[in-house]
Amino acid sequence: MRISKISIQNFRGILLATLTLPDHAVLIGDNNTGKSSVLEAIDLVLGPDRLNRRPPVDEHDFFLGKYLAKPAAKSEPGASSIVDSLAQADVGSPDEVESAPRIVIEVTISDLSEEQQARFGDYIEWLNITSGLLYDVPDPAGVDAAAIVAALRVTFIGQYDQDEDDFGGNTYFSRSLTESDTPQPFTKKDKQKCGFLYLRSLRTGSRALSLEHGSLLDIILRLKEIRPQMWEDTISGLSSFNVANDPELGISGVLETINRSLKKYVPREWGVKPHLKVSTLTRENLRKVITAFIATGDGDHAAPFFRQGTGTINMLVLAMLSQIAEDKQNVIFAMEEAETAIPPYAQKRIVHELRKLSSQSIFTSHSPYVLEEFSLAETVILSRSSTGQLTQASIVLPDSVKHKRYRQEFRTRFCEGLLSRRVLIAEGATEAASFPVVARRLAELNPDKYDSLEALGICTIDAGTETQIADLAGLYRSLGKRTFGACDKQSITSKAAIEAQVEHLFMHDEKGFEGLVLKNTTQAALERFADVLSWPPHLLVKYPNPKTKAIAAIGEYFAWSKGNWGVADFLAQCSEAEIPQWLRESCAKLKALCDPPPVAAEDLPTTAKKLPDDVAALLG
């Protein structure tokens, strides 16, 4: 059993999304792209205990926080009003557009077991796994084709009920929404048969080993059909135990004086004899306060499990989820940030174990150690437009980047770019090391004019050679990234090839980056650097007093330390005026491109009223 497709409308930052998932997947993208929202959306549809929360959704779960019907009066639609209209339940007639927005999430499940097919028989459909389309040809024999498999569609609908002045939501068999006058709920029992388990990183650990409803320990006990009949005995034992009853403690004496005062004002029947008990002595209270203790180290002292180290809690939660997976045999496992407080070797172990235990595993991660455990086909790159369209992309390597190289250089060259929104492809290691350093230095010296690349959300990738800039930029551009290039002077042909793949090319007129820096800085900056530099012995032999021949000596030092932060260290100690003008202009341009100043409404040109391309595409 696995999730083949998920469609999302109006959920959190996602206006529209349709994603297809492989057997095992890692969802990656920059922060706030929507990775967690995708997992939360699946949990709304398939999580057995998710709808126990009341209300199941709230204001912040609706796209742009809009959950009320729009007023009947309409104005000339600008770009924002069209987006508002799209955020309604459906795009169609005026009546439909003016209805209250709804959260609609549909999940298509395939590879159903025989038991699942028997249980959901009335709602089973047939899916062509090659095309991703449902088989609707009026020929029953067609479902015997190898590419056609049994599938089940389930839909969650959440909305604001104006009559009740509250939010509501439920899950239904999708077919019943269109083929029946009465939609058929997809119940908690039905969801348990699907076996979706969701580990929300640290948020799950605080109650995993308690007996609260829906905790991991409670789920394990229910799976094993264990119903501990302990509540009456526990409550009886605790009710006979008076806390701080010893007169020497003084508490009982204070309570007695309160009791005497109470008698002055009310009859006995109203209440007398206040005393302390362990808790409110109800089942629900005990479920919350009973928790497991764990001993650590060589001693016998034990502490509550949630007071252990973060990594220990996460591994404990993982062990419990693995127990659930082993018992259920056919589960879909979703996990956020498997790397949180976990060392690299344990991150890899988590991925291997969950892939082995589950019929499908879905991860989100920012760790190269997790990401490299997934093949290209299993890596799903997510990106979200400014209008809320969430899209996916797959990694297609250019001919110049062989798969072996991708695997070998994944941590050092490819991973950071896959996780970023914006990528600067630098010609070589010197440029890749220097650009972030000089941008950070300029931001410290003149924050109104410059920003660090980190603040702009730009990661810098070493292309290795000028011939690789266009290919790597094309790779990241195909994944929805904003791409920029930085290089030495190129031929007309090479420049055109790079410019075709980047949003902006930063090209200087020198043949080398070291030459650019040496020719465009000041003598004072060179001499200051010569004084603080730990010179390698072979250069000290050639230049006993490097400061007297600073340009020549530092030029040779740059050549010797090429790719080893030599130029970057020099730029880090420069003033703004000492940094080459080309670098200053490049950093200022990057800030203007990535973080433009806001435009006042009265300054917007008439053409600004045109619809954005992605919104126009949604409207057809």
From TrEMBL:
One of its GO terms (molecular function) is endonuclease activity. Residues 1-61, 290-370 form the Endonuclease GajA/Old nuclease/RecF-like AAA domain. It holds the Pfam family OLD-like_TOPRIM. Coiled coil: none annotated. It comes from the Bacteria. Residues 418-488 form the OLD protein-like TOPRIM domain. Keywords: Endonuclease, Hydrolase, Nuclease. SUPFAM superfamilies: P-loop containing nucleoside triphosphate hydrolases. This is Putative ATP-dependent endonuclease of OLD family. It comes from Afipia massiliensis.
